[in-house]
Structure formats: structure tokens, C-alpha cells
Write a structure and sequence with these properties.
Layout: E1 7-12, E2 18-23, H1 40-45, E3 55-66, E4 69-80, E5 84-88, H2 95-101, E6 112-120, E7 123-124, H3 132-138, E8 139-142, H4 154-165, H5 172-182, H6 186-189, H7 202-214, E9 220-224, H8 232-245, E10 250-254, H9 258-264, E11 267-272, E12 280-286, H10 287-292, H11 297-303
Parallel strand pairs: 5-10, 5-11, 8-9, 9-10
Antiparallel strand pairs: 1-2, 3-4, 3-6, 6-7, 11-12
Helix pairs in contact: 4-7, 5-7, 7-8
């Protein structure tokens, strides 16, 4: 499929006839993986299974509670290295809760509990011998609203993660330029690095937060609706940054924007919580398949705008 081409989704009207509902605004621009391989088992069930050595992160039989309320159930997802996975689904289905389990931010919430495993490079990040600080350095987070440190300059915001983690920064000026360049912000701020971060626009602040996350050299970058508060122009720049970063980092992004999911991701997981039940993964497959040939009718209904 070429960029800009509309996607049709088959909707069964009867056992013999199918109507193709066109979604002209959605096109899938990304390949099905940046070198991530799939085996015959993954092709059978639609879920991507990376070859040995390239599997970056994985959730196994994950259950999440707040108090006695089970909010996520039986989540099994694989995130191959150097790919982008979009998490989609209606509000309240557990997407943001899930993404916070991937760097142990979930456990900061009172009454929160978890069962199952989250593997990073094959090791469970919830094992008793794992240093949570190291996990949060390896698995960075960009939040829904830009949150630069308001009293710090642009330069100091980039370096703040290193200082908080007491990590050596080496050549600070080179590191600042490298991180801002990777975040797509360097050319816009290179002559005003000493200015306050809040002097930047909302979109620039969000890219500054991405640069700050990159400074500690994460293996995985989590993004929780990073463009929801941004205008279309700023959103496009963030998406360009995601495409560039995915060559070297595994990215997992929560989004309510179907067009964005189609543009930036290799894989898509559809979450749903029905009738007071906990959230579950309904379908997880390549982005091209989920937007053109979804296997579950609930996925089809969501991406065509029938609910959510």
C-alpha cells in the first residue's frame, strides 16, 4: 500500500455478501517492522514474535488491580526491538495503566497491584533483585502533556535526567546537541539554549521532554498520548521524531488518533473493556492488517468509528 492510499475494511452484511467500508483518511505508511521477524506461529494468530535476540520487551499474562478492582486481565504482548507499537482503544480500557506497568510507574499508585511478568531483554523487571531506578532509565516515558522543568533552561532540562540519576554526562554540549537533534528540536533552539523551557511552544516543549528522556540512553520509550494537546503542525513534527527514533529505540505509544497509529506504527494492539469487565487485548497484529483486515468484529467496529 502506498502512502496516502485509503484503507477498506470488510463488514459482513450477510453470510454471502460483504460491503467494503472505505476509510479514506487512514493510510498505513510504515512497514511491518524494522527488521523484526515473525515465525509461523505468529502468522497463525496475527501477533508479532521476534527472533531470538531481537525481542526487546514482553508482557506475559499480565493482570493489574487498583484495590480489589481488576482493571487489566490476561495481557500478552511482544514488542520487537526497533519497532513502534500503537496501543488503541476507547477511554477507560486500560491502555495508560498498561503502559505504566512497563517501567514500574504503576506501583507508585496506592492500592495498585500486579500479577504476571514484564520482560526487558528477557529479565522480569518486577523481580526482587531488579533496581527500579535502572528500569526507569532503560524504559523512558513521555507523558500526555509536556512537563519540562519550568525553572530550568532548555539546556538544563536536557541534562536534568543525568543529574537526577547521578550519571556522568561527558561532553555536555555535545550531548545536548545530540539529544535535541534526535528529538527534532536542535535547529529551532540552538541559539537560545539558556532561555527558560517555558519560553517554547507546546510542541517544542514536548520535543524537549523527548530529548530529556533520550539523554539517559533508554532502550525503550513509552509515549502516553504525546500529541493529544498539540496542534496538527506540532503533531506532525512529533511523528517525524518517532519515525526517526524507531531506528534505534523500541517505541510504545498510546493514541486515540487512528490516523496517527496508522502513520507511525509497525504493530497495533486494540484494548477493550466491556460492560464493567477488565480491559483486555482484543487483537494484536501488524498495523497494515489491523486497519485493512481486522479479524475481530469489535476491532473493525472501533476503527471504523462505530463506537469509542
Amino acid at each position: 500500500m502506498t502512502p496516502g492510499q485509503g484503507i477498506g475494511v470488510s463488514v459482513s452484511n450477510s453470510s454471502s455478501d460483504k460491503e467494503v467500508v472505505s476509510i479514506p483518511a487512514i493510510s498505513v505508511d510504515r512497514p511491518e517492522g524494522n527488521g523484526a521477524a515473525t515465525n509461523s506461529a505468529s502468522q497463525a494468530n496475527g501477533a508479532p514474535i521476534a527472533q531470538h535476540g531481537s525481542r526487546e520487551m514482553e508482557a506475559q499474562n499480565l493482570h493489574v488491580w487498583f484495590g480489589k478492582n481488576l482493571v487489566l486481565e490476561k495481557v500478552d504482548l511482544v514488542f520487537p526491538a526497533n519497532t513502534v507499537t500503537a496501543l488503541i482503544g476507547p477511554s477507560g480500557c486500560g491502555k495508560s495503566t498498561f503502559i505504566r506497568t512497563l517501567n514500574r510507574m504503576h506501583e507508585l499508585i496506592p492500592t495498585a497491584a500486579l500479577a504476571g511478568k514484564v520482560l526487558l531483554d528477557g529479565k522480569d523487571i518486577y523481580s526482587p533483585d531488579v533496581d527500579v531506578t535502572q528500569i526507569r532509565l532503560k524504559v523512558g516515558m513521555v507523558f500526555q502533556k509536556p512537563n519540562p522543568f519550568p525553572a530550568m533552561s532548555i539546556r538544563d532540562n536536557v541534562l536534568s535526567g543525568l543529574r537526577l540519576a547521578k550519571l556522568p554526562s561527558g561532553d555536555k554540549e555535545t550531548l545536548v546537541e545530540e539529544c535535541l537533534t534526535r528529538a527534532g528540536l536542535w535547529t529551532e533552539v540552538k541559539d537560545r539554549l539558556s532561555q527558560p523551557a517555558l519560553a517554547l511552544s507546546g510542541g517544542q516543549q514536548q520535543r524537549l521532554c523527548i530529548a530529556r528522556a533520550l539523554a539517559v540512553k533508554p532502550e525503550v520509550l513509552l509515549m502516553d498520548e504525546p500529541c493529544s494537546a498539540l496542534d496538527p503542525g506540532s503533531t506532525l513534527k512529533i511523528e517525524d521524531t518517532i519515525n526517526y527514533l524507531s531506528e534505534s529505540i523500541t517505541i510504545i505509544i498510546v493514541t486515540h488518533n487512528m490516523q496517527q497509529a496508522a502513520r507511525v506504527s509497525n504493530y497495533t494492539a486494540f484494548f477493550l473493556a466491556q460492560y464493567g469487565e477488565p480491559g483486555r487485548v482484543i487483537e494484536h497484529t501488524t498495523t497494515s492488517q489491523i486497519f485493512s483486515r481486522p479479524k475481530d468484529p469489535r476491532t473493525e467496529s472501533y476503527i471504523t468509528g462505530k463506537f469509542g
